[in-house]
Amino acid sequence: MENIDLINSFSEFKDDKFIDRVTLMSILEEVFRAALKRKYGEDDNFDIIINPDKGDLEIWRNRIVVNDGEVEDSNQEISLTEARQIEPDFEVGEDVSEEVKLAQLGRRAILSLRQNLIAKIHEHDNTNIFKQFKDLEGEIYTAEVHHVRHKVVILVDDDGNELIIPKEHQIPRDFYRKGDSVRGVIHSVELRGNKPSIILSRTSPVFLEKLFEQEIPEVFDGLINVKGCVRVPGEKAKVAVDTYDDRIDPVGACVGMRGSRIHGIVRELGNENIDVINFTNNIHLYITRALSPAKIVSLKLNEDKKTAEVSLKPEEVSKAIGRGGHNIRLACQLTGYEIEVIRDGLAEEDVELTEFTDEIDTWIINEFKKIGLDTARSILEQDIQDLVRRTDLEEETIVEVIRILKEEFED
Questions:
Q1: Domain annotation for the chain: domains and CATH numbers
Q2: Which of 176, 223, 381, 407 could be disulfide-bonded to 218 (CB atoms 3.0-4.6 Å)?
């Protein structure tokens, strides 16, 4: 393979990967020097001249002329007789420059050189992709579904870069088809081997924050700040917003007339229920707002232990806890306080569920507590089929619990 043929064989990489001329020359010289070092032991006395645009490559070896029989290092020295075969007027002590053809390196060395060049160009390309996407961490990115697997969705962007959405970063109700355009936030970028692994997330709270920036001009402009954002992906989210401009209603601006502004965000997140509340440094008021839509009767704080005891009317308890316990769990995450809900004015004839631990397993009691039912009468007032839908309990288990509770009052 001639020098020019070898250079031309890499023009496709230069064109496809948009490697600039200087970088390509650097990669070529690095690989050629490595090949020379393997062949001759060192490369310090070689000059490599490359013009990748024209496909020109010249390699020159520089040696010193010594008397015949005095050559100790054939890479650094050349005998007088051999030097005069190149040019007849050479004398001892002079420098001789001789062009080295690729054929002199041997066929195997040339094949290895080609493989190394391909690897170096790909490595350079992957490094650039890694740096590009590392700078985009935390930003929204759009790509197209290329392949759907059981635990991961593979996406490809307009430049052919591959991104993935693992199962844990997919909203449960998301459905992906090849060719679909998908938005998410660049969650993490790592180099695995020499290949960048780009994780796109649709479950990260950062994704919701960035959607607020994209969809709500006042947030984008900095007039409204997102102070806190927590999610149960696909189910419920709470976002605390604030503004330095007293003329702006931050919640109203984010929600829009009849929910017009937030509707697009809700739809993007698979109809995730989003509560937008006003942020405040008054922790009493902040917890009260975080437990919305429930209305609090009273609240006791322990700021040292970061706990809050909240009293509510019986009919408000289920609202505070929310379906599956999502509301109270998100309120705890948003405020940073462990919130305990107390039923206010518990009727004397009612009995706390914890009194039945001898007859009802604790995990069953906890299932009822998740949906805001923590007393005997609060369960007896419910429809059995409704309890089956709202809990992870079998109908037979619920029927048995109701039987035990009824016996308590009959006794």
A1: 3-131 (3.30.1480), 137-201 (2.40.50.140), 206-272 (3.30.300.20), 280-345 (3.30.300.20), 353-410 (1.10.150)
A2: 223
